[in-house]
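Please produce the structure of this protein holding flavin-adenine dinucleotide.
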Amino acid sequence: MLQIMLQKVVIVGAGPAGLLLAHYLLSRRKYHVEIYERRADLRLVNASQDRTFPISLQERGRKALREIPGLEEAIAAASVFCNGTKLHRKRGKARKFSRAAPILTIDRNRLVMILLQHLTQTYPAEQLIIKFDCACVQVDRKAKTVTMQPAQGEAFSLSYDRLVAADGAQSQIRDILVQNAGLQCEQNHVPDAYKSVFLSRLNPALGLELEPDKIHGWNGDNQTRMLMVPQPGDRLNGVLIFDAERNLNLSTKEEVLTFFQENFPLFGQLMSEEEAEDFLKRPVGRVLTIRCDRFHDGDSVLLIGDAAHAVSPSIGQGCNASLEDVRVFERLLEQHEDDWSLALPAFTQQRVPDAHALKELSDYSFPRTKALRIEFFLRLTLKKLLHRWFPQRVKPFVFDLLLDQDLSYSQVLSLSQDWINKVKRSAAGGSTKQSNSISRSKRNRTREKLNEV
Ligand SMILES: Cc1cc2nc3c(=O)[nH]c(=O)nc-3n(C[C@H](O)[C@H](O)[C@H](O)COP(=O)(O)OP(=O)(O)OC[C@H]3O[C@@H](n4cnc5c(N)ncnc54)[C@H](O)[C@@H]3O)c2cc1C
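Below is the modeled complex.
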């Protein structure tokens, strides 16, 4: 009886954006939500660590979590708070960059698991259905049906009143809208590839202990760098980032250990033989960036999170922006009394400029040349000091604007345009890789070869 009066929303993708949107929609008590996720249920399988990495969340993302009672607290309890970054190097003391407001860091799969547990504990099956191992393969926009392909068994179709593409950077629904609905979408691979790394923060035999409340970084040679984030239980999870065109040439665990000991000696000392062996087997990840001209189709399809605007993780904003999307959309539903024919175009109008600004910031805040990188750290330190002394006259540098101020991405871009232009010019001089759009056929071939993020 209750179900008849509710609008049926099908959400494709149980990542941070899809799950948080389900929380928001269900709390409005006007929707019946069905979520379909291609991967297995993280609560039931012993999830492989291959496809996870630490995510840092600051006020932008946390604000969106906070509006669901108990959610931010549950996520914070499983997180580690970092009050700065320590940049280690071969010679000289490590550089420290402190943060006034601590950053919450959490493993991506753990974040998803908490969002999921909270959702299923709060809402009964009459309001919420979640199916795993089930990929969306087709959409019929006129009939308002989607076709799902389970990992085992026959494909099946289901109807929807509203459809949400929360299926990440490789979104199938977005691809269908590009083919059939004139959605304009530019897709690029960032020049970097990455592999997850899992270490202990401690090596008692060597008397080594990395600080538990700092993100630990290291810039190596040849565009290689590491970013390691403390996790509960003395773990240190992170990534090795390297030029995608470079072959690391590592085929034995001994070679892996030597590679880390030579290039990132501190992290090399924390790497066990088991981790060296696992590292070899882990897939190389590539990051696809997405720039769309709209985030909706008609009065019934919404694109959200990475499906709408995936960006490079260089400034740690993708998830923050995806969670913020949900909050913005819910505000619009409230404003338009759940009339999606008004809320959807309003979402595009409000969010597309911010998403385009975020892409620009993610592509060009952090420089790739050594000389500009030195300038970057000088500006970071200097602007922090000058802003403290002359807060009205000197604005903080781009990272501090992003992390500490309540500004939209468009506002941050506008205040940082000089620096972004400088980095962009240096990137254009050094390489054209960053602006290489990927054609559909090439992208499909690439997708077959690479492991999806
Ligand atoms: C190395 C790395 C580090 C990062 N660090 C940060 C950080 O510090 N801070 C930050 O804010 N962001 C960070 N990000 C970005 C962040 O991970 C993403 O922006 C965020 O996960 C986006 O959430 P989402 O729900 O939109 O998409 P996703 O997390 O990609 O979830 C999409 C879901 O949809 C499912 N799916 C895909 N296709 C289908 C289909 N056809 N049918 C059904 N299901 C489907 C997928 O299996 C997946 O579970 C990082 C990313 C990377 C790669």
